[in-house]
Amino acid sequence: MLFRVKTIVLVAIMTVAVAGCKQQGSTNGESKKVKIKTDYGNMIVKLHDETPKHSENFVKLAKEGYYDSTLFHRVIDGFMIQGGDPDSKGAAPGQQLGEGGPGYKLEAELKEGLFHKKGAIAAARQGDQMNPEKKSSGSQFYIVDGKTYTDEELNKVEEQMNLKKKQQLFMDMIQNEGNQHIQQRLQKYRQNQNREAFQSLVDSIEPVLEKRLQEKGKFTFTEEQRKAYKNVGGAPHLDGNYTVFGQVVEGLNVIDSIATVETDRMDRPKEDIMIKMEVVD
Known about the structure:
Elements: H1 9-15, E1 33-38, E2 41-47, H2 52-64, E3 72-76, E4 80-83, E5 105-106, E6 120-123, E7 136-137, E8 141-144, H3 151-176, H4 180-191, H5 195-216, H6 223-231, E9 244-250, H7 252-259, E10 276-280
Antiparallel strand pairs: 1-2, 1-10, 2-9, 3-4, 4-8, 5-7, 6-8, 6-9
Helix pairs in contact: 3-5, 4-5
């Protein structure tokens, strides 16, 4: 029989190892632009000054021709289109892609004001369990397609984001503060079907987690973000977790065209979508 618990603590126990802002893209006016050329049309990306490591790396690779003949190897309609894997050059049909790179990662540059509205370009990365510092792939990127949201849906995304933050606070409490006994007690109560003791301990932990969450700052969408997600669309659940380093300023329709192509079970387009890049000042 499952226990009914309102807090994220139960989720954390069961998984144990846990697998704001200015106008987006505000710059000093001197940002680099990169043209991404495809058979579906061209996109002009303006790179953000606020993320110099990612922007300069992207320009460097584009100038070197690193991205030329690579593919958009992962495409999910209503979400994003992903490319930048060097292994995709000349890849055989059905070949699994998404693990390649230049042999280095980039430190995360998570900046307020840079969020995942439609057309945002951001760095792909490994998941939190293997990559808690949220370091970015040295070359792989994705461009947001996304969808529009209602205020009610955005409220739910906020709740989910804060539950994840609370989950991490709980794991920190256990792993970093010598409180493994809490986890052991909860597991014991659950195994013994001692619902009353389990819920009592959960209830005693919840205020501590809520206080810590308040101190660290709850995740909240700004009015600017809400307006963008309601009117333009995007992928708000990615905010604060992946480095957004640019914005498509021309060719948003190209994203739509690519996002709707037929894909296989690995989300790879059945017909190759080849990339070529050119840096434009």
